[in-house]
Amino acid sequence: MSSLLHLPFILLITFILISPAISHNCSSQSFSNNVHFDNCTHLPSLKSSFHWTYNSTKSTLSFAFIAPLPSSNGWIAPIAPAMIGTQCLIAFKGPNGLMVVKTYDLTSYNSITLTNKLLFTVLDSKAEYSDGIMKILATLVLPSNMTMINQVWQVGPAVKDGMPVAHKFDPDNLKSKGTLDLATSSGGGKNATAPASAGGDGHSGDKANGSSRIWRNNASFYVFVMFLGVLLL
Q1: What is the DSSP letter of 166?
Q2: Among 65, 27, 60, 28, which Cα is nearest to 43's?
Q3: Closest residue by Cα to residue 107 from 8, 34, 175, 182
Q4: pTM (whole model) above 0.85
Q5: Dihedral angle computed from the Cα positions of residues 90, 93, 94 and 95, in that order, rounded to the nearest 10 degrees
Q6: Contacts of 9 by beta carbon, 8 Å cutoff, 6+ apart
Q7: Residue 93 φ then ψ, to 5°
Q8: 59: which residues sit within 8 A by CB, 6+ positions away?
Q9: What is the pLDDT of residue 216?
Q10: Are strands 49-55 and 39-42 parallel, antiparallel or unpaired?
């Protein structure tokens, strides 16, 4: 019988100050320094994919979330957030053109602060950009016996004065959630298609374990993936 382990959320966000471009799939992707992942899941929305390797002995999850950049139209007004206490890895392309990764806390509905204290250990993290595709890569140390992770992923407008800004409210954006079963990891470059997410009111939820924080602006783009909680067998 599965039970829900209530953990602080981990939000991984990639910000870039560039324009939208093309899509991709699992088999077309490669990573610098010959990085390889045992599994790849075609996510059911936003033409995105999630590459991952789970090491049950070390309780580590190494992953790359990949998505094409969105178009610049169709921005929406803010909605009520429910992500107070979320911890973030934020990677963005700075003025010098280099990608940087920083850690943040969402301390209130309107405040993001830099922090060097995360409840999950981050062994490494980086971001890559090539040919219109943004990638965020990281390795996390997870609690032992973790087998299921609820995910939310999104694409939308980027950052203003250090704050993320709103994603679109299109149907494809509203169904960007699913579950990752770490126990199914089999190695050998396994490819799979994630099941479509359950329907809802399209607000990415306003419950503590299922919501997406929305900010508003009209410049550049970000992609993010959020680990909402953990189901243990």
Answers
A1: P
A2: 65
A3: 8
A4: no
A5: -160
A6: 83, 85, 86, 87, 209, 226, 227, 228, 229
A7: -90, 115
A8: 141, 142, 143, 144, 146
A9: 33
A10: antiparallel
Count, residues in the chain: 233
- Residue 13: closest CA among 164, 139, 197: 164
Tell me which residue of 134, 173, 137 sits closest to 154, measured CA to CA.
Answer: 173
- Could you read off the pLDDT tens digit of each residue along the chain, which spans 233 residues? 444 444 444 445 444 443 333 445 676 677 777 788 888 888 787 677 888 899 988 989 898 887 776 533 222 212 223 344 456 666 666 667 777 777 767 665 456 677 777 767 888 888 887 776 778 888 988 877 777 776 667 665 666 665 566 556 778 777 777 777 888 754 444 555 554 444 443 333 333 333 333 333 333 334 444 443 333 32
Q: What is the pLDDT of residue 42?
A: 83
CA–CA distances in Å: residue 13 to residues 6, 30, 66, 102: 21, 20, 11, 10
Tokens 């990638």, located at residue: 135
- From residue 170, how far is each of 13, 83, 90, 173 by CA, in Å? 19, 21, 24, 5
3-state secondary structure of 164: strand
Residue type, position 41, single letter: T
Q: Record the tokens describing residue 76, joined without a space.
A: 């929406």
* β-strand pairing of 121-130 with 133-141: antiparallel
Calculate the alpha carbon distances from 33 to 36, 107, 112 in Å.
9, 36, 32
